[in-house]
Amino acid sequence: MISLRGADIPTYAIPNRLAEHMPIETGVRVVALRGIGYVANKFATEVFVDELALRAGIDPLAYRLELLRNSPRAHKVVEKVAAMAQWDRKRSERGLGLAYIDYSGTQIAGVAEVSVDRKTGKIRIHNFWCAIDQGIAVQPDNVVAQTESSIVYGLGMALTERITIADGAVQESNFYDYTVMRNRDVPEIHVDVMVTDNHPTGVGQMATPLVGPAISNAVAALTGARVRHSPLLPERVLAAMKA
Q1: Rounded distance, CA 70 to CA 1, Å?
Q2: Phi, psi of 61 (to 5 degrees)
Q3: What residues contact residue 143 under an 8 Å CB cut-off, 6+ apart?
Q4: Using CA atoms, how far apart are residues 51 and 59, in angstroms rounded to an integer?
Q5: pLDDT tens for the 243 residues of the chain, in order
Q6: What are the residues whose beta carbons fall under 8 Å from the beta carbon of 96, sequence distance 6 or more?
Q7: Most C-beta atoms within 10 A of its C-beta, which of 5, 35, 180, 194?
Q8: Separation between Cα atoms, residue 67 and residue 100, nearest integer Å
Q9: In 10 A of CB 125, how many CB atoms?
């Protein structure tokens, strides 16, 4: 089932894993979204991995690298994006958050750099770094373009895009009340296409599921508040900071 895609975490060295699905009849027709299944499921798994790291008192980067000790490709892609973002560099009033995904064999990792207006709860993304190992890059420029667009798509879903249902009807009707990313909202995006001789896999939507958990993890690192629902609306951030 596509709703379970991404729920398993086979690349991490966790011996006992279980992913289950419970269908619910909502009465609302749904269709596939870019990053099918992975967007929701990887938000859950990557935020949870971050929480486990913090609970154990271990840096989230070091924690993931240890979990990926048996997966060399994954280990390298996480190391690469951490180097791109200068993970260990101290920043004033900004936080970093990391996410990693094995998406149908494509290894991809992202780091978000964020700040938070503590009066309004509004999140601002300053930089997003992404390293991707999709095997042999047949068209490297296209890989970059697809990855950048995937990130922009993920930013909208992570921060502003929300559909509300009342009496079985969608309340939003256009882009004035369903807010997508504008040019002014998009941060600096840095993509590294890693050169490998692995069998080529996909690039069309692999970065989209990275964005939400990376931002949530960055907000937690900066403020200590964990936002577990997407999109990360200002009122949700404020409520988490006050909890």
Answers
A1: 28
A2: -70, -50
A3: 132, 134, 137, 191, 193, 203
A4: 10
A5: 677 888 888 899 998 888 888 888 877 777 778 888 889 899 999 999 999 999 999 999 999 999 999 999 999 999 999 999 999 999 999 999 999 999 999 999 999 999 999 999 999 999 999 999 999 998 999 999 999 999 999 999 999 998 888 888 889 999 989 889 999 999 999 999 998 998 999 998 999 999 999 999 999 999 999 998 889 999 999 999 988
A6: 85, 87, 111, 112, 113, 218, 221
A7: 35
A8: 11
A9: 23
Phi-psi region of 45 (alpha: psi -120 to 50; beta: other; left: phi over 0): alpha
Rounded to two decimals, what is the model's pTM? 0.94
**Backbone phi, psi, residue 20, to 5°:** -125, 160
Say how many Å lie between the first and final Cα of the chain, rounded.
Answer: 36
User: Within 30-139, where are the H helices?
Assistant: 38-56, 60-67, 72-85
Give me 158's structure tokens: 């992570």
Burial class (CB in 10 A: 0-12, 13-18, 19+), 12: buried
What lies within 8 Å, CB to CB, of 40 at 6+ separation is: 230
Which class does domain 32-242 fall in? alpha beta
CA pseudo-torsion sign 152, 190, 42, 120: negative
The token pair that represents 156 in the structure block: 């909208």
